[in-house]
Structure formats: C-alpha cells, structure tokens
Amino acid sequence: MKKVTSRIDRSKQVIKIRDLRKSFDEFDVLRGVDLDLYQGENLVVLGRSGTGKSVLIKIISGLLKADTGLVNVLGCDLSKITPKEVDALRLKIGFSFQNSALYDSMTIKENLQFPLIRNRRDLGQKEMDRMIEVVLEAVDLSQSINQMPAELSGGQRKRIGIARTLILRPEIMLYDEPTAGLDPITSIEINKLINEVQERFNTSSIIITHDLTCARDTGDRIVMLLDGQFQRQGSFAEVFNSDDERVKAFYNYNFID
Question: In terms of residue numbers, what domain contains 71?
C-alpha cells in the first residue's frame, strides 16, 4: 500500500524535544533524544523491544517524567506546567494502547461514551450519540455499537480502541504498537485506518512500532531509536540505506521484500 502524502505544515511544530534523558535505576533508556513533530505529520519511531519507544510516548503524554531535557507539547513545557494543566493537555492527546484498553463489562457504546461523560459534562445524550456515531463510522464498525468487546476480533478491538481515542478529537495521536498481535491482512487494514485518521481528522501522530510494514505504509517520516538515541531519520528508503549492521539486522528480521 502506497502512503498518500498528507499536507504537513512544517511551520507548526506540535512537539519539540531536546536532549531528553530517562533512566531507571542504573539503566539509561533515553540518552539525549531530539525529536520534532509537525502539524499533520505521521512520524514513525522504530526500534527493537526494550529500546525506550513506549517510554518516549509516556513522557510525551505526561504519564512519566523526564529526568532532564526539554519536552514541549502544543506549546507547553512539561517541566513547568501544573498537574491541572497536564490533565488539560492530555485531553488534546489521544493515546491508542497496544491492548486497546477496552472495558470488558461495557458495550462498545458505553466504552465510547465513558471518556465523554468523564471529560465533557457539558454534552447532552444526543450530542454524545452523534459523536459516537461519527467515530464508529470512521473506523467502519457502526454495526458493533451494542456488542461487547469479547464478541469482537482482535482487529475490531483495535479499531474500537482508536475510535475511543478519537472521540475527544485530540490534536495529537500516539499509537503504541498498533499492529502487534494481528495477522498480516488485519495489520494492513489498521495501517490504512491510521492514514485515514490522519487525513480525516487532521491529526499529528507518533507511531511506535517494530513492524516495518506499518512503518513503510504509515510514516511520512521515520526515525530509528538505537542505543537510546535517534541514529537514523528520513523516508523509509533513506533510513534503511545504511551499512550499519544494527539497521540491516532489523530490516532482515522483518522479512520485507
């Protein structure tokens, strides 16, 4: 599937990170990371498991604190804002979890309504119903509104997880291993959905993955995290046009033709 280039506004920087460092005990996970994300861009962060990809997006979303460095999200310096301001910022950031994070005891409608009830108390039931209808249509699962999560396939749960993330209309989407555990055909469908979300909702996205097909099909730009730093960045072809054995091994492991 060929990636359709979106209209990226490089004059609008939505995330700026400089010299970000994060350690756990004596293990240095992020060792001076620099990153920029622009309005309308899908940025893929590639790396092997355990390299700090998920740590990075947890810091961006305020779930973890950086040890040192600048993390500026939508104009807010995360080291200087109050907990209340962090909560307000999180409403502008959609976090699509690897396991979809749906509530098993709730119907799909109730799962989608939950963040609205919690964060948008100004809305009436008709308005919420309309918002639910829009995001379900966007992920092509309108027919599943009254089903339970257990009745859905893994790919359908991923779609509902993305719909629930979209319900608050975030400016930034963070995808954590969006194709993990999915078969190749379903993975292609999720990659297509990520691109459709970018175009339809004008989101700026960071996509954390070790799936090269996902990276190739969704990324406007790709950065590779190696040894706690971004060692490669550019288009898919530019990143993997390298004699670095670490890069070649990563490519070969994924069996991309």
Answer: 9-92+170-254
DSSP-assigned letter for residue 220: S
CATH of the domain at 236: 3.40.50.300
pLDDT score, position 51:
81
Residue 137 lies in a domain: no
Task: Evaluate whether residue 156 is within a structural domain.
Answer: no
- How many structural domains comprise the chain? 1
Task: Confirm whether 40 is domain-assigned.
Answer: yes
* Residue 23 domain-assigned (yes or no): yes
CA pair distance 257, 252, nearest whole angstrom: 9
- Of 188, 137, 189, 187, whose CA–CA distance to 163 is shortest? 137
Coil/strand/helix, residue 84: helix
Buried b (16+ CB within 10 A) or exposed e, 3-19: beebebeeeebbbebee
CA separation (Å) from 97 to 77, 139, 160, 167, 233? 24, 16, 11, 15, 24
- Greatest extent of the chain over all pairs of C-alpha atoms, in Å: 58
181, containing H or E segment: none
Rounded to two decimals, the pTM is: 0.90
Which tens digits make up the pLDDT trace of 56-87? 999 999 889 999 999 999 999 999 999 999 99
Q: From the centroid of its chain, how far is CA 93?
A: 9
Spatial contact of 101 and 111, defined as CB atoms under 8 Å apart? no
Answer for the pair 218, 197: CB distance below 8 angstroms, yes or no.
Answer: no
Q: Environment class of residue 150 by beta-carbon count within 10 Å: exposed (0-12), middle (13-18) or buried (19+)?
A: exposed
CA nearest neighbour of 167 among 124, 206, 115, 92:
115
